[in-house]
Amino acid sequence: RLQGGPQFQWSNMKWVRGLVYGFLWYSSIIAGFFLLYCPCFYLIFINRRLYRKLTEVIFVCWESYPVALYQILFGTKIIVKGKRMNPRDKALVLMNHRTRLDWNFYWGALLQACWPHTYCDKYVLKSAIRNIPCLGWIMQLTCNLFVHRKWQEDKYLLDNVLQYFADIDHCCQIMIFPEGTDYTEKTKLRSDQYAETKGYPKFRHVLYPKVTGFASMMQTLKRGKQIDCLYDVTVGYPDATPQSEVDVIMGDIPREVHFHIDRICASDIEWEENKLKELCLRRWQLKETLLEEFNVSKCFPGPTEIESPVDVKFLYMSLLFWILLTLAGMFTILFTSLGFWWTLFHVVLFTAISTTTDGVQHLEIYLHKRRKGKSLPKEE
Length: 380
Description:
disordered N terminus; 12 helices; seven-stranded mixed β-sheet; globular; alpha/beta
C-alpha cells in the first residue's frame, strides 16, 4: 500500500472534501481533453500508430492522478492480494461491479499489482458514457469498447474493435463487468429473479453475470491471438461504499478498498462456448465465497499484501503536474480568444461525432481498414 505523505484531516467537512475531490478530478479531464487530446486527434488522419500510442500514454499517466487525490489528500488505502498482473499480458479482466466508482479505485490496484503499467487498459462501457463531455470523448479517443445492451448490435461493435486490435497486434488488457451494472437493491432483485427462472442458487454479494458476451469476447480474442490469460479481480469495500458519483461529491470516500486478483492461463481454459459460460459462472461462485469471507473479516484471504513499487514522490509529481495543467487549461479557455474558439469548435465537433456515430474509435478503425484495403493486391 502507498504510504509516506501527510494526511489532511477533513473528517468534519465531508462535503467539502467531496467537492474538492470532484472538482479536481473532473477539471483535470477537461484540461487534458482540450490541451492534450484535441491536438492528438488530428494524428488519426496522418499517423495512426503514433495517435494510438500518444492517446494511451496520456491516459496511463493520468490514471495516477485520481490515485494521488484519494491517497494523498484523503488517506484512502488500496490493499491488493493474490497474483501480480504482468503489464505485457494480452488479457481479459473480469471484475464484480459493486459500485459505479469501481474503476476509479481499480487504477490504484494497477499501480500496485501491474507495474510498470506501460500499456493502456480498456473498458467495456455503456454506450451513454461516450456522450459525457470530455470524459466520454477521451474514452472514445483511447479506443474503449461501448455497448448498447442489444446483443446482435453489440457483438458487431465489440468484434469490430477486437479484430482491429488483432490486426495491429495491440497489447492491452480489457476490463469487462459481466454483471452489466452495479450492485444495488434493484439490480439484486433482478438477479434473484433470473436465478429463480434458471434454478440457480441466489447470490448475496454479486449479481449473476451475462455469460454470452463474455464467451463471445473470449472466442474473438482467441481467434485473433490476443489473449495470454484471464485475470479475475474481486473488489470489496469494508467501510464507506460510494455507490455513485454523487456519494463521492458528498464526501463518502472510503478509507480502504480491497482487491483480490487471480490469473488463469489461456492454456488452461477450455474454449468451447458452453465451457466458457461455465467458467464465468464458476468464477462468480468463487467471488461469492470470497466476498462472504470478506464480509466477516473485512479483508481478502492471503498471507501478504502486494506492496506497491511506486514511491509516494511519484504521486506528488502526478498531483502537481495535473493541477498545473488544469490551471493552464482554465486560463487558456477563459482568458484567451484562441482558447475559447478552440474549445467551442471541439465541443461542437465531438458532440456531433458522439450523437451521429458510434464514436471516434470506429472512425479510427474505418480509416485503418480503408488503408489496408488499398494496400492489398487485387485478385485477378
